[in-house]
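Recap from last week: sequence in, structure out.
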Amino acid sequence: MKAVGRGADLGCESIQIFNQSPRAWKPTEYADEDFAAFNEAMADSTVEAVIIHAIYLINPATPEKELREKSRDSLIHALRVGDEIGAAGVVLHPGSRKQDELLPALQRAGEMIGEAIGESERCPVLIEQMAGHKGILGHTFVEIAGMIEVAGGSDRVGVCLDSCHLFAYGYDIRTEESLGGVVDELDKEVGVDRLGALHLNDSLEALGARRDRHADLGKGEIGNDSLAVFLSEPRFDGLVATLETPGKDKKGASKRDVTHARKLRQRGREERGLPSGT
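Predicted C-alpha cells:
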C-alpha cells in the first residue's frame, strides 16, 4: 500500500513494485486481506496501473536444477500476486546463458516462462529487452521472439522496452525516423501488439556500448530531445510506463522527474503534430 501512496504523491498514473525483496529468494506470503487492502488503495488513488518486477535472482536460462526450480517458483509466485492485484504484467529479465550455447539457453528460458504461465491465471509475463552485456539473453527482438515461441506463443507473453537498454544495445531511438524503424523491427519479429510496458531511462553510455547504466532524464547520452521522441511514439500510446532513473542521492525518481517526463511527452506530441495527451 505504501507504493500506491508514494506513486500518488509523485503524481504517477502507473507504478512498478517488487512482490518481495528483489535480492532474496524467500517469498512474501500474502493473505486475502492484503490483496483486498492493496486493491482498495489502488481504487482510492490516482494510480491507474501497476506492474510487478520479478526479483533479480531469477535466471530462466540456467541449466542448474536447483536454481531453475527456485527461479520457476519465484516467477510463479510473482504471477499469482499479479493475478490478485490486477497487475498489467510481471517484468522479467530473461536470464544469463553464461558460457552456454545460445539456442539451448533460449529453449530453457522459454520453457520456464511457459511453465509459469501454466501455473497462474491471467497476469502476463513481459520479457524485458536487455542492454546486451555478455551472456545476457533478450537484447535482440529475434531472441525475445524465440523465447515467446518456445513458451507456446501465448498472448500472455509480451515485451517491456527500456529506453536505456535499447540505446545501449545499439537500437537508435534518437529521431522519429530511427525510432520508427526500431518499432517496425519489433513489430516484424515479435508483434507490436505484445508490447506491454515501457521503462524510461537516459543512458550514461553511448549508443551500442552494451552497458546497462541508467542516467536521470536529460543527463545522459540519449538526452531530452530524443526522450521526447521516445515518449511520443504513437504506437506506445496507452502503455504502462515507469521511471527507473537513479534520482537525487540515488533514491529513485522524484515528483520533479515525473513532471519532467510528462512535459517531454507533451513536447514530443506537439512536435509530431499529435493531440495533447497525458
